[in-house]
Amino acid sequence: NNMACLWICALLLHFCNGLSEVPVGHLKPLGFQRPPSVIIDEFTVDNAPSPVDFYRNYVSQGKAAIFRGAILQSKAFKTWSDEYIRETFGELEARIEGKKEKGGGIPAGETYMGRDTFRHFVDTYHNSSSYMVSELPEQMYKDVGVIPSVGACGLMAKRFVEIDIWWNGGGGKSIIHKDAFNQINCLYRGTKQWKIFEYKYEKWIYQQKEREEGVGGFSKVNVDSVDLIRYKDFAKIPWSNITIFEGDCLYLPKSDYHQVFSEGTNNLAVSILFSRLDDLAEFDASDCTDDTDYKALKPLSEFDVMWKWSGKGYMSMGRGDVENYREELIEVVEQMEHFTASDLEQMHGLDMTDQRSKEKFPDIERRNMTKVFTVFDKNSDGILTSDEVRAATWEDFRLYGLHSEEYEPSNSYIFEYSLIPYEMVHGLLKRALKIGPILTRKHWVKIYVKYTQGTPYYANNVFNGLVGDGDQVVVKDIT
Ligand SMILES: *[C@@H]1O[C@H](CO)[C@@H](O)[C@H](O)[C@H]1NC(C)=O
Ligand SMILES: *[C@@H]1O[C@H](CO)[C@@H](O)[C@H](O)[C@H]1NC(C)=O
Ligand SMILES: *[C@@H]1O[C@H](CO)[C@@H](O)[C@H](O)[C@H]1NC(C)=O
Q: pTM for the complete prediction?
């Protein structure tokens, strides 16, 4: 039968093709699968667009843009040497990660795990796997420049969500991921290679969602060895291969996927995250006038930022857009006749007496919704109205965020407790106590740091738990 023969031939052909055809760039590093083809517009200081044009042609279109030399005149660009930062900002703290290619473990800083002082970081980052990925302390805002296309006037300048610093000693390499917000990423030191994949190709990115409801996410594709048998559609994505030099800024639209490689022995970027500005009926530019200076950089300290950080204590990295919180709260408040403090507590599952709340918020003692409610309830009648929510300031919302947001260990000092299992510390202690009749504090700290890669600070905490502030324990006394 002719028909059957044809089918068999076709099948055979398909099979043999499948065997012989290794896709171009299979198991090669990212970038070898197809040549880059998407051109990204570039501006100089002289021809950069006004906020209105920038919003219309780039932000609202989800289209990236490069601003060459945009922050060359900023104070940070001119002054931020290692020495200057150590002298000026040394006491401030930042969050640190391990570089991905070095295994990505959380390194210990001067005092805490996952947290370092600028002083200690400056002295060690050239020779460690520490990568500062952190909110930028507010004290440093005055040195940072905001480019006129975003900051001269208009709505974007009033919607800064978070300011981050990315700093490493070279070699930092990311996975392919997307962020929740629009960002202007300016490079103060070093060079960065960016590979950008527009959001519209997400269907071919092989996405791993970070959280169920989250807007973040990353690709399952291994950037060192792209498996085109498993992820065959990945090679279909047109992409951009761009180099950002020091002094340049990149506008990266919300949700665009990107992979970044940091070059140079000092690689420091500051990223200004601003609202997504989805579904905006009209771009508010009512403060743009003939007097607006469309050429000058402005210091970041002249802007309000939704989440700021003091350089100590609990960090607010990764929180949401305050204006979205406002909308959500208005919606909930309007559904109820009398919205009281306990409704606010319930809304966030923050019942201090409930065991499940305690599991969800291990830091529940830090939280107090009554306090938040008191601040929002301006006429102190015990009932929150939608007008009161509309009138609430960002400062009010900062308090709200601090007390309500999901617990994020990497924002806190107790990070180390969540990383080093109790059993490990307990086992180590048991072994240490077996060795001799006496265990000194000094010896305990040494073995704790060695075996857990933790910090002396926590080693001492554990020891304090045994003997208060004593210098040694007599083993027979504590068994
Ligand atoms: C991407 O750009 C970098 C820097 O110019 C270059 O070294 C690299 O070969 C480019 N990659 C591709 C695939 O074009
Ligand atoms: C970094 O380590 C290398 C050897 O591993 C050493 O030669 C160099 O001096 C160190 N640099 C700094 C800044 O400590
Ligand atoms: C919570 O805040 C309220 C109002 O500021 C205060 O009266 C109360 O003592 C606080 N409760 C706790 C447990 O800290």
A: 0.85
